[in-house]
Amino acid sequence: MSNKLRNSEIKVTIALDDNHVPEKMYWSAQDGGVNHERAKAMLLSLWDYKSQETLRIDLWTKDMPVDEMKKFFHQTLVAMADTFQRATDDEKMADSMRDFCDYFAEKMELVKK
Fold first, then answer.
1. The pTM is what?
2. Total domains in the fold of the chain
3. Are residues 1 and 35 in the same domain?
4. Which domain of life is it from (predicted)?
């Protein structure tokens, strides 16, 4: 078994207007077969183990419609609940998070009653 590490890169390119507001966003992940694909929003969280805090970059383009932003947040919250369960094996709390996701979707009118 080899102990060699291999690097993988995810690249995000942001085109800014004169006021430094994102106008266009592209991302690439060669290992995932993604090359310069357009995106309208991103939420990136990194854990700084030294300071024991989360570092974040939250960006969206000025043409991101509010209805799409609501869907983006809902889908991100659902994914976070799934990831939380896989990472911690805490099914009870993950289910509570999913309950909130259902509430969020209802209040944002993302699902029909």
1. 0.88
2. 2
3. yes
4. Bacteria
Residue 98 makes CB contacts below 8 A (sequence gap 6+) with 78, 81
Please give the biggest Cα pair distance in the chain: 54
Please indicate, yes or no, whether residues 31 and 75 belong to a single structural domain of this protein: no
pLDDT per residue as tens, the chain (113 positions): 668 999 999 999 999 999 999 999 999 999 999 999 999 999 999 999 999 999 999 999 999 999 999 999 999 999 999 999 999 999 999 999 999 999 999 999 998 76
Q: Based on the domain organization, do 5 and 42 belong to the same domain?
A: yes
Q: Which residues contact 111 (CB under 8 A, 6 or more apart)?
A: 105
- Give me the domain span that covers residue 23: 1-61
Minimal CA–CA distance to 35: which of 7, 11, 6? 11
- The secondary structure of 16-73 as a DSSP string is E-TTS-EEEEEEEEGGGTEEEEEESEEEEEEEETTTTEEEEEEEE-TT--HHHHHHHH
